[in-house]
Write a structure and sequence with these properties.
Layout lengths: L24 E3 L5 E2 L12 E5 L2 H12 L3 E6 L16 H20 E11 L4 H12 L4 E8 L15 E8 L14 H4 L13 E5 L1 E2 L10 E2 L5 E2 L6 E2 L3 H9 L3 E2 L9 E5 L12 E2 L1 H4 L2 H12 L12 H11 L5 E4 L6 H8 L3 E6 L3 H14 L8 H4 L6 E7 L4 E3 L5 E3 L5 H12 L2 E2 L10 E2 L4 E5 L6 H11 L4 E6 L12 E5 L32 H9 L1
Parallel strand pairs: 3-17, 3-18, 4-5, 4-16, 6-15, 16-17, 23-24, 24-25
Antiparallel strand pairs: 1-18, 2-18, 5-7, 6-7, 8-14, 9-12, 10-11, 13-14, 19-20, 21-22, 22-23
GO biological process, one term: methylation
Protein name: site-specific DNA-methyltransferase (adenine-specific)
Catalytic activity: a 2'-deoxyadenosine in DNA + S-adenosyl-L-methionine = an N(6)-methyl-2'-deoxyadenosine in DNA + S-adenosyl-L-homocysteine + H(+)
Length: about 550
Amino acid sequence: MTRKPKLELTWIGKENRPKLEPRILLEDREKSYHASHRVTDHDLFDNRLIFGDNLLALKALEQEFTGKVKCIYIDPPYNTGSAFEHYDDGLEHSIWLSLMYDRLDLLRNLLRSDGSIWMTIDDNECHYLRVLCDEVFGRRNFVANIVWQKAYTSNQTAKHLSNTHDHVLVYAKEIDTFTVRKLPRTQEQIQKFSNSDNDPRGSWKAENLSAGKFYSAGQFAIKGPTGQEFFPPKGRYWRCNEAQYLTWLADKRITFGRSGEGRPMLKKFLSEMEDGLTANTWWTHEETGSNKEASIDLKAMFGDKSDVFQTPKPEKLLRRILTLATDPEDLVLDSFAGSGTTGAVAHKMGRRWIMVELGEHCQTHIIPRIKKVIDGEDKGGITEAVGWNGGGGFRYYHLAPSLLEKDKWGNWVVNKAYNPAMLAQAVCKLEGFIYAPSDAIYWQQGHSTERDFIYVTTQNLSHDQLQALSDEVGEERSLLVLCPAFRGKPDKYPNLTIKKIPKTVLTRCEWGHDDYSLKIENLPKAPIPPGQMEMLGEEAKS
């Protein structure tokens, strides 16, 4: 049998993948924050707010969090076209897709096997993103395209049609292990159940006994309490056979209305139904909020400083997503944190969270917002709906600088900002070791197995020092040693593997590259089309 070729989305520059440096994360304890006391026994403190480029941050999280994130929500910058006005038509899609491709690839690795990713996007890039995600996550792992009503009034100045919706694309890591939770019934939905006949089983509502699907055994006559006979409506059939009907009738699950003259209906008891409803793919602003609602909440929190966010997402929208995709204490990740809505909602709902943001609003908006949540001072959003009273905390991290930098002669050397502990932690990450320095044994700075260790030093090691190391390690263990230089033959120490730093890692990564962000000023300039150069004149050429 001939296999069908794999369909992929192609674009200019797709093959140019960055060689990301796995940076270490440094905690800033002055910006970390936690409540002054425990509010409940379920308070969560080990949440993370990371300041820095989100692609580098995702790479930094890879070693510790691969396969551990239950739900990812991202609200990436929409490619509106205006941001790419200096590029040829079509090229802007290539740039945007390249930036997203690298991030999605890392995000997929971080997901648990039963995890999912939810992405809000508008019409400009939705369908490109859908095909891109088919490639990254696999088309079979597509779950749904949800339409979210972001606005509830029409823009009368729209050129063609007023756009009142965004998309929420949902993909599972593994569709076979992914499950969607139910939505709890609202009070309005519960009130549709009543108990007019004082049935001891409690409140019920009447459901149609007929169905449109053909069922040959569902074509019998039903005799009502008054002797009247009922048949299924034309083109429909009873949803049961006669034996099942008689069982329901004997169990008093059939109603003919209060008068006894109505068509037969099936009583569905609230107490016997699942505790929740299956969500659909049309989310109204009444259920999940709107951009305007989110703007009003931010305005109440930050005043005029909230204007930096043009299309903020409401807390109701994130609550719906986390209700469907997570359970309490699951880990939630947002690598485009924006105003910090994901972390605020996850915190109030008892989910652990990680947020990444490069903009200065990480300091001016996200930190103050999450502090208000922790202190119980945030009265907006979903606070009242979930009964939030404060508690918990978060740790603030920033990305370490690049491990290597160039000296005045243009040679790559270890960055002077790195102390010995930082250097050991960074090299552990590069070599795939878990950083876990021993308090008792100086050369045990990390491990890959119970018997395989790593030792990183800034000293040049002599033959005697290497021999002493080899003797201490012994025959039952192995040690990777990284140092600037050493004397002696490496094969003389069978339990040691000796490498020079930085020489051994020079070709591993793009050193000194600090910003892979989606800021337009960081993107490469578009090439000038052939023939246009002559029109620009000699001054433009130079």
